[in-house]
Structure formats: C-alpha cells, structure tokens
C-alpha cells in the first residue's frame, strides 16, 4: 500500500499541474490543510539537463525551475531542492522517499510506477533523433535495430 503522505502530495501536484496556468488556485479543505501541515515540499531534479534544468551554484535553473517558481508562489509554501550529483542518484533519492516530488520524469511502465505516482504532464517535449547529414533519414527506431546505439543509464527514450 502506498504511503498516504505521498498520495496526498500526488493529489496536490495533480491539481497544481492543471492549475498552473490559471490565475486562481482552488484547493479543497483537505488539500489546504495538507499544505499547512506539510510546511515545505522536497524536490529532486536532474542536476545537469539543460535547458530543462540544472543545479548550479546552489540554485535550480532552467525551464522546470521557472514552472516551479510559479507553483511555489501559488501554494505559498517553499519547495526545497534535495541535491543529487546525477539523475540516477535523484531517482535513488525518490525511491528512498527523501524527495516528495521529481520536477521532470517520464512514466515507464512498470518500474517507476512501483515507487512513484504520476500527475498529468505540465510540460510535453517531443524527442527527436539527430543523425549526421550523410546518413539515411530515420523515422522509426526499428530501423536502428541492427545498428550500434546507446543511451544514458536510467534515461527514457
């Protein structure tokens, strides 16, 4: 059974992602009470994924940082960054329940759903495949099945 606090944090964030672009923030009594009791929300980030986000000189910068500044203003409680040296370490912190939320993460059935709840995306970014100009255009990943390729550890494509 999932932690009740984690579930309540998920409910708040689910609501916030839809309320992010509205002028008013409407919270239920339960949501308001939860935030009053919570005092602050801890957040893990990818420390080096610009332009999306980065942890530089003790500050969260990038696109997601701008979104979370707005969210923090709307909920009126601080969001504290839990520093991690790598994205893998940030995921480990989430598994250990040391951060309430992750700023940018993709749902990967079933692994991440075993220890995380997911809100609706507040940001959708299409991923593209870039090749050298003299290579054949690739419009499906299937065409790469016999080619050598790589990706970063614990990063979803």
In terms of per-residue confidence, which ranges show pLDDT below 50 for 5 or more consecutive residues?
none
Q: Mean pLDDT, as a whole number?
A: 82
Count of distinct strands: 6
Strand pairing plus helix content: what structural class? alpha/beta
How many domains is the backbone divided into? 1
CATH class call: Alpha Beta
Spell out the helices and strands N to C.
HHEEEEHEHE
In short:
By secondary structure, the chain is α/β, with parallel strands linked by helices.
Structure notes:
With 157 residues, this protein is α/β, with parallel strands linked by helices. It has a single domain, classed as 3-Layer(aba) Sandwich (D-Maltodextrin-Binding Protein, domain 2). The protein has four helices and six strands; from the N terminus they run ααββββαβαβ. It has helices at 4-19, 29-38, 63-75, 87-95, and strands spanning 41-44, 48-49, 53-56, 59-61, 79-81, 101-102. The chain is elongated.
Q: What's the layout of helices and strands?
A:
Layout: H1 4-19, H2 29-38, E1 41-44, E2 48-49, E3 53-56, E4 59-61, H3 63-75, E5 79-81, H4 87-95, E6 101-102
Parallel strand pairs: 1-5, 1-6
Antiparallel strand pairs: 2-3, 3-4
């Amino acid at each position: 059974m999932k932690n009740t606090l984690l579930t309540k944090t998920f409910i708040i964030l689910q609501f916030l992602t839809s309320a992010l672009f509205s002028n008013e923030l409407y919270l239920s009594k339960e949501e308001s009470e939860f935030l009053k009791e919570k005092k602050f929300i801890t957040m893990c980030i990818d420390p080096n994924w610009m332009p999306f986000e980065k942890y530089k000189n003790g500050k969260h910068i990038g696109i997601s940082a701008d979104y979370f500044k707005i969210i923090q203003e709307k909920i009126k409680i601080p969001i504290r960054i839990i520093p991690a040296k790598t994205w893998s370490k940030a995921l480990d912190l989430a598994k250990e329940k040391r951060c309430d939320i992750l700023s940018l993460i993709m749902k990967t059935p079933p692994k991440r759903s075993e220890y995380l709840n997911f809100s609706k995306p507040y940001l959708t970014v299409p991923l593209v495949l870039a090749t050298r100009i003299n290579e054949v255009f690739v419009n499906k990943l299937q065409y790469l099945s016999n080619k050598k390729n790589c990706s970063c550890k614990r990063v979803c494509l």
